[in-house]
Amino acid sequence: MSSELKRAIREWCDRMEIPLVGVASVDRWKDPPFQPWMPEEFYPQSIYPEARSVIVIGLPVSLPVLETSPSIYYRELYNTINSLLDQHTYRLAAFLTQLGHPSIFVPRDGYFGIRALLKNPVAFFSHRHAALLAGLGNFGVNNMLLTPEYGPRVRFGSVFTSAVLPSDPLNEEKLCIECMRCVRMCPVNALDKLDYPQGLTDKKSCAEHSNELNQKGISPCGICIKVCPVGLDRRLFRREDASIYSRPDRFPEGHRAWEHVQSYGGL
């Protein structure tokens, strides 16, 4: 296994200002941390048989922008992050290929918009599960991957590489505090704690709500990641009190700002 190559990858990511990077051997998909797990056709080596390692990068979702969700502001941020993820993973794959390690990027979504999710609410590869296996965090009640740095406010992208790289240790610290804010504040009641952490989202209801917001030009929803109290970013932005989203009296100036943004740009 190439520790030197892994170090070169991290240095490359540092130059690109990518704050979260993790590596998982493809063997980890065969020995999952919980059950039920995904079918084998979703494994990296089922998509790219030459894959030996998966590199996962994460870009943060800026909390003050997310707080305006659903809004055109958050939609633009979401699209910007998606574009950067695709560019970064494409360039990282090209970097590794040029070094003699054939690699491919995986698009950040892998589906054709909300209409495709309404038909089948599953993508051909899960970046969240890849991030879990690459040691970047673990799942919360909201069925999102929580990270110590940003809670669930992270978007992930992946690279499949033929290089054999040392895996990062799994994050064994349980990050979700089960405060249930995400469950209570979901606008379509799409969350149910009974199956945590195996996967609990009512994907159909979530997709239908996203479709409604998309028709107004203000998707995605983002509520369940906005209200999560986990993440050092909350301290950075002085948002330690996550009750502010349901208690306007605790942050009236914030609510006025969010309502202002929400009043413009959508249909």
**What is the terminal separation in angstroms?**
53 Å
Oligomer: single chain
Give me the Rg, rounded.
Answer: 19 Å
Q: How confident is the prediction overall: mean pLDDT?
A: 93
The largest sheet has its strands arranged as 1-2-6-3
Residues in helix, %: 25-40%
Number of domains: 1
- Compute the number of helices: 11
Uncertain runs are none
Categorize the overall geometry. globular
Order of helices and strands: HEHEHHEHHEEEHHHHH
Largest sheet: 4 strands, antiparallel
What percentage of amino acids are in beta strands?
Answer: 5-15%
Task: Summarize the structure in words.
There is one protein chain. The protein has one domain. The protein is globular, with a radius of gyration of 19 Å. The chain is 37% helix and 11% strand. The chain is of the alpha+beta class.
Could you provide a short overview of the structure?
By secondary structure, this protein is an alpha+beta fold.
Topology diagram in text:
Elements: H1 3-15, E1 20-25, H2 44-47, E2 53-60, H3 63-66, H4 72-98, E3 103-106, H5 113-119, H6 127-133, E4 138-139, E5 145-146, E6 154-161, H7 181-185, H8 203-215, H9 223-226, H10 232-236, H11 252-262
Antiparallel strand pairs: 1-2, 2-6, 3-6, 4-5
Descriptive labels:
267 residues, alpha+beta, four-stranded antiparallel β-sheet, two-stranded antiparallel sheet, 11 helices
